[in-house]
């Protein structure tokens, strides 16, 4: 028996290195990993929402008097900020669809617009914090308000960091219709951030 036949018999052949990973999902491993990460982040937000609603239930004036006196929410500013963030989801979608169609200019414009709107959201939130009239030391309500909205703001910052990296790579010509995970993965995360803000806005400012 020749050496080649003996290698083939023992399963070696010409393959070097570990065998290819067994894929149990139709999703790309990177996309699946991001979805699993988002699931863990959703549970983190769930813990904060649990604390928030607990504080609302035990509040002496709940549910008729919320937020408790003397606190007040800047609902109009938060509404405008919500519109900005929701719009950024559309520009993010535009960026991804553009590169899938080999439209590099559209991808670059979509990423830049998304970054600008995300930055505007964070700046507006910082201004809101400066003028809201209370801080984290003003009771359980104030602590949970800053905790929940601040947690989301931290996620927006992480999303902006990922989008900035994607934008730099986009302007360097790193993406193509066949290879665009560097845009798709941050886009999935950004959509999660947007959806989570809608939940935060509805729970904190509207309900």
From TrEMBL:
SUPFAM superfamilies xrefs: Cytochrome c oxidase subunit III-like (SSF81452)
Membrane topology per record: Multi-pass membrane protein
Transmembrane segments: 31-55, 75-96, 108-127, 139-168, 188-206
Enzymatic reactions: 4 Fe(II)-[cytochrome c] + O2 + 8 H(+)(in) = 4 Fe(III)-[cytochrome c] + 2 H2O + 4 H(+)(out)
UniProtKB keywords: Cell membrane, Membrane, Transmembrane, Transmembrane helix
Signal sequence annotation: none
The protein's name in its UniProt record: cytochrome-c oxidase
Source organism per UniProt: Gaiella occulta
């Amino acid at each position: 028996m020749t050496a080649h036949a003996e290698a083939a018999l023992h399963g070696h052949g010409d393959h070097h290195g570990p065998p290819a990973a067994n894929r149990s999902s139709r999703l790309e491993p990177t996309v699946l990993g991001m979805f699993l990460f988002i699931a863990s982040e959703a549970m983190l937000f769930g813990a904060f929402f649990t604390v928030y609603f607990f504080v609302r239930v035990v509040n002496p004036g709940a549910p008729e008097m919320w937020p408790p006196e003397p606190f007040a929410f800047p609902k109009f500013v938060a509404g405008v900020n919500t519109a900005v963030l929701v719009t950024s989801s559309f520009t993010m979608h535009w960026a991804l669809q553009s590169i899938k169609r080999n439209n590099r200019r559209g991808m670059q414009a979509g990423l830049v617009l998304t970054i600008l709107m995300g930055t505007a959201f964070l700046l507006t939130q910082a201004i809101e914090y400066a003028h809201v009239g209370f801080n984290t030391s003003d009771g359980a309500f104030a602590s949970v308000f800053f905790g929940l909205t601040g947690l989301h703001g931290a996620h927006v910052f992480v999303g902006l960091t990922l989008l900035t990296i994607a934008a730099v790579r986009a302007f360097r010509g790193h993406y193509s219709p066949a290879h665009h995970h560097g845009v798709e993965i941050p886009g999935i995360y950004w959509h999660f951030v947007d959806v989570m803000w809608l939940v935060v806005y509805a729970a904190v400012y509207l309900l």
